[in-house]
């Protein structure tokens, strides 16, 4: 552990010292006013020097891993540390305590570059999420999973829409209509972090238990439903007229039909005919990017195409597929996702909440609604279906994990101008807290059940002794 | 093969059609004047929309793979097709025959983004080159390898300096002094494509033969020597005074000492202590980027630090190392190097040569000197050392392969303003031709040797018959 920290420390501190050299080296960009990072990429900005760019991105990557490693040591999923690293680098922490370093590291002109890498990270991440979706998961307790999955979206969504009534006036971005805002807040509260969930289940040895299978199937159903809701929200936010929205939906349906009817069989044949090992990864990369670009052009978002390409990528127990997944996954996690986390972090301004005490109140309210909606919704659906209370409690806690998926949705909402930076910050906090709460909540459930079992055991023992 | 082409074709043609949609979508950037791409990143430019950027890069990646796949089918190394794809997309071909598409695909504002990805590609590529260097290769015919390796640099270098006398007046960039220019041209002619060479040897089943071992060791020695020459050239080009140049050399030596004396043992201990599987790739990525940044700050170039990190990365037959290499390699080749090839291609303007007939003459002269220097130099050193003529001819032909390594050097020279775009274009042509010539030349040597063997056999047979 010590060497770990030393090695990582060197990787961060050494360049930080050298940054002082850079202050002179790139004074033009560095001494400008503190930039307010914005998602839009249409601004006229000075192009920064390449070493400065490489430096920013290296720090972003290094800190994400440092955060991940520390959280891993604390028994939490790495991803929480990776997400937190982005916030640490942003205006919330680094920008507040050491604004000079923040200005050197992230001049406004760095943002479009971080954004580009973040978009690649999102596309690869969503492809991997799609790749995890497997039809065979839906067998077994299919009906329970279907109902719980839908309930775990429907109830948080309904609560989200209700919440939107309250927060529309104080927290919506200026020109956004209520329907789009409500749809977006509903979708944002009803999402579940499918891949983080899978990792938590694997780490706790729950993946191949009945609870694990039920959870992962529920989460898959919930995620697909939430994505559909988001697609509608995006269409409404972008389309200026109902006709335009209809056109987008029609194009989306046509795109999905072509992907399933033409691209999937073509890919399957390509893989069966023996696509060479070295050509497989290129085909995957080009495929997911083209697919993502098409959905972007249709008017929904990059992530849908990349996700769909992952869902329909043929998986017949092929060694080649496993290798593609492993290689894509490592590189995505290690290199492409950290810029996304930084991008989210640079847009998260916790200082915005400090300005008004009521905002912290709103933040707590949103968190409470989000958690209650997920845990309560799942339990309300699972208990009548005969799922034992212990299992449905665990299911609810697990589905409450929002992780990266939530950040994906939030960054889209911010980019489209549906939510303000203040609401974005609140929802990022909700995502972090609800993800970080998953492991401790599961442990407290374990402890409680163990205590009850012990008590029940003692009672049974006493009963046996009495009857003896 | 057919499905291959169809799939790739779709990946390129489909977005090209959709580009027409983009014309309207991003008219602001697209309808500007034809940009003359430049290496400098200090210009004020309009930031392009993210989908347009993703689109450009997707086309770059797709075409590189298409080129690689086609060349692979023709029995050539993929890398030639990947290099050629960059030129096809540049002003030499696409820009000449379909300027509208070229303008949509590569507005001037895309260049800094391509440059950033290209820099990452270079850093990862050089790390992998360093990782291929293995001390045990230097055993065996060490003396022959050492002498041939040095000769294969010294003779092309001397010829390059002589050539510089001729071309300095017509082809050097305006403010560059003759010593820097001569040093650079010498280094550019004496480089060998170590990784492409390793791939060619593997593909032809020569890697584990005595010729293969001799070649790869020679190439390793030649490459390290050529890098040192290049480092001196860069230092001279950047440093305004001898004192500054000395400072850079001193810092470089100190850096190398710290890397070998401190970082290498630390890494070895980290790996022995059981750095977790998922933390290894992050450590590699952060390490190579930090190391590259430090050499950049010292005043040489990014590539040296990344290369050195690869050289000293501990390799004790670890499975983990192999996995890191495989994963880094696939992703680098498939995703990070294509932008580098595009960057080179966008700066290659074959049209510049067509304007003056004498320039084609210069280009042919440079090619002749480059090829003669390598093949002649190696043969001149190897033959007196007792290497059979057949083997030394093969050695010379193999060492003449310049591949990506040449492009790396050229892009640095262009970036530092040592060479003009016209000379850059000529040297890119030299790199392409000498790399593409390797496989056919080897085959013609094989055929000639087989013919001679047959003749010798017949003569021997006739002699036997006569004496019988």
TrEMBL record, chains A, B:
Natural source organism: Streptosporangium amethystogenes subsp. fukuiense
Pfam families given in the database record: Na_H_Exchanger
Membrane topology per record: Multi-pass membrane protein
Subcellular locations according to the entry: Membrane
Protein name: Cation:proton antiporter
InterPro entries linked: Cation/H_exchanger_TM (IPR006153), CPA2_transporter (IPR050794), Na+/solute_symporter_sf (IPR038770)
Domain Cation/H+ exchanger transmembrane residue range list: 62-442
Organism classification: Bacteria, Bacillati, Actinomycetota, Actinomycetes, Streptosporangiales
UniProt KW keywords: Ion transport, Membrane, Transmembrane, Transmembrane helix, Transport
Residues that span the membrane, as ranges: 51-71, 83-101, 113-133, 145-168, 180-202, 214-237, 249-267, 279-311, 331-350, 362-389, 409-442
Main location: membrane
């Amino acid at each position: 552990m010590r060497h770990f920290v030393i090695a990582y420390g060197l990787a961060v501190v050494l360049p930080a010292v050298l940054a002082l050299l850079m202050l002179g080296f790139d004074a033009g960009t560095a001494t400008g006013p503190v930039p307010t990072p914005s998602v839009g990429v249409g601004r006229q900005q000075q192009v920064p020097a390449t070493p400065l760019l490489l430096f920013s991105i290296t720090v972003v990557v290094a800190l994400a891993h440092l955060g991940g490693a520390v959280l891993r040591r604390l028994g939490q999923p790495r991803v929480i540390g990776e997400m937190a690293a982005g916030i640490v680098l942003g205006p919330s922490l680094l920008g507040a305590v050491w604004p000079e370093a923040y200005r050197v590291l992230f001049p406004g002109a760095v943002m479009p570059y971080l954004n580009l890498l973040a978009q690649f990270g999102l596309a690869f991440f969503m492809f991997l999420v799609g790749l995890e979706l497997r039809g065979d998961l839906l067998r077994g307790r299919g009906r329970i999973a279907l109902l719980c999955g839908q309930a775990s979206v429907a109830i948080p969504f309904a609560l989200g829409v209700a919440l939107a009534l309250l927060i529309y006036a104080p927290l919506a971005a200026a020109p956004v209509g209520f329907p789009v805002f409500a749809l977006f807040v509903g979708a944002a509260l009803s999402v579940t972090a499918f891949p983080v969930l899978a990792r938590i289940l694997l780490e706790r040895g729950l993946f191949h238990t009945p609870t694990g299978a039920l959870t992962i199937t529920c989460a898959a159903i919930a995620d697909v439903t939430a994505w559909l809701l988001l697609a509608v929200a995006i269409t409404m936010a972008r389309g200026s007229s109902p006709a335009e929205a209809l056109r987008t939906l029609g194009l989306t349906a046509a795109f999905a039909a072509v992907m399933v009817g033409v691209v999937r069989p073509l890919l399957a044949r390509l893989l069966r005919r023996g696509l060479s090992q070295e050509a497989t990864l290129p085909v995957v990369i080009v495929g997911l990017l083209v697919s993502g670009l098409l959905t972007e052009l249709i008017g929904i978002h990059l992530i849908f195409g990349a996700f769909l390409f992952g869902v329909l990528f043929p998986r017949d127990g092929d060694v080649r597929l496993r290798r593609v997944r492993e290689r894509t996954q490592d590189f995505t996690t290690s290199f492409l996702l950290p810029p996304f986390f930084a991008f989210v972090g640079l847009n998260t301004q916790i200082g915005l909440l400090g300005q008004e005490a009521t905002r912290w109140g709103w933040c707590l309210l949103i968190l409470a609604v989000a958690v209650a909606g997920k845990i309560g919704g799942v339990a309300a659906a699972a208990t009548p279906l005969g799922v034992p209370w212990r299992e449905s409690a665990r299911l609810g806690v697990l589905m409450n994990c929002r992780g990266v998926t939530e950040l994906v949705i939030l960054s889209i909402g911010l980019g489209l101008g549906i939510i303000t930076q203040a609401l974005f910050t609140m929802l990022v906090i909700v995502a972090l807290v609800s993800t970080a709460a998953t492991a401790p909540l599961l442990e407290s459930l374990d402890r409680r059940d163990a205590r009850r079992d012990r008590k029940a055991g003692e009672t049974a023992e006493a009963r046996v002794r009495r009857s003896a």
